[in-house]
Amino acid sequence: MTPVPTDQLAIDGSVTSLLAEYVSSAELDAIPQDVRDATKLQALDTIGVSLAAVKLAPGIREIVELLVAWGGVEEATVWGSAHRLPAWAAAFANGAMGHGLDYDTTFHDALVHPSAPVVAAVIAVAEQRPGVSGKDVLTALVVAQDVISRLALSISRRDGGWKFDWHNSIVFGSFGATAGAAKVLKLDARQVESAFGIAATMATGTMELAYGTESDLRLNYDALPNKAGVMASLLAERGLRGTRSILDGKAGIYNVYYGGSYDRPSLVGGLGEQFRGGQEIGFKPWPAGIITHMYIDAAMKISRENDIQPGDIAKVLVHVGDLSLTLCEPLAARQAPGSVNDAKYSIPFSTAVALLRRAIPLDDFTEQGIRNLAILEIAAKVEPVYDSSLNTLHRISPGGVTITLNDGRHFSKMVEFAYGDAKVPLSAAAVVAKFRNCVEASGLNWSRDRTDHLIDLILNLEELTDTKLLGTALGV
User: Fold this and answer.
1) Please, which residues have CB within 8 angstroms of residue 443's CB and are 6 or more apart in sequence?
2) Which of 38, 271, 376, 474 could be joined to 4 by an S-S link, Cβ 3.0–4.6 Å?
3) What CATH number belongs to 290-415?
4) What is the rounded distance in angstroms from the CA atom of residue 127 to the CA atom of residue 228?
């Protein structure tokens, strides 16, 4: 494809049209090898955490049961099962799994989860459509993650940053999933823009998902953008015309949702030359909300460096800015969360697990795990201390922990970039090991050979001639 010259972006047309043209013309040969390799690892990671979610995440069973009861044309695999459903329904079910354990990838600079909202849509459409190759899927995944990442960056990097109002992983995930599905379907630019216009009617969701408690949907929401992407793209392919200029029109997404304010260069600068996402995307080492990770990291480091035993701890202070404070309030509910979902979004609980285990195992985020008295005893000692200097406009905020021991000693640690951030990345080997751990936790009882086969398919995606083989490998 021909990259859009950065110096022309200020005067040349609708950003919706520019993105649509980019999606339709993107080619694998223009994508650097390091971006391809990173994207394949991100797909592997997303599939791994999804398979584990089949067993461990709340809400998945109910979603799959309803979709299977509805039935329909068997076009795509429901991962970790023998079920096949229409592409939109498979994307919905598999998308619900992607963030089900809050263990999926994060683009820290964009304040968005870029993989779980899009991967299921791309794979479902690829299964549905004969003749789709692994190269087609890889190109679509790169484009999908690029689009969602650019959209989120355009808000996180604007003056004033993101207001933590609209849930960008859902809103922008709908456009990312549409871009990926449209790429698999080989839609032209006008069809892609129509698909964006159709998807916009389904692109909604607010951050009350994060602030509120007692909701399964905070973990299942990626069902929605994946379904939107599949349906919007298939409808556009059939000839349904969606609203043009849906991002930057008079009553488009930017004007209605974001007060007309966005950073245009972050959105369309270097399209086709710089692929946002790729190496900029971080992998989660721990199955908890990304805002908790600075506190988990700090607590583990203090505990290991000073050989602190749980019984030695008198008090734990967590140093928080505005967003992190919401994961500490109301304090009593965050210290003793009432659900697995709430535990994953609790700084006191996650910090307590880190201090008890010096690790964050999946088992501690289960209905049994959240009632572990040893964890709850430590969590009851964790209190927030507000620090306005920890508020950052344009990326995940830093955080810190101070531990006071029974003998009066104090230990403190501040963490700006937690392990797993793209600036402190997991190795490829660590991502593969995480995938194996997730498959083991899924209860699927796959042999090592079968797991190796799936890893090989995904990490050598360019060599796959028929993506239906990937669907077969993801079933049972």
Assistant:
1) 54, 55
2) 271
3) 3.30.1330.120
4) 17
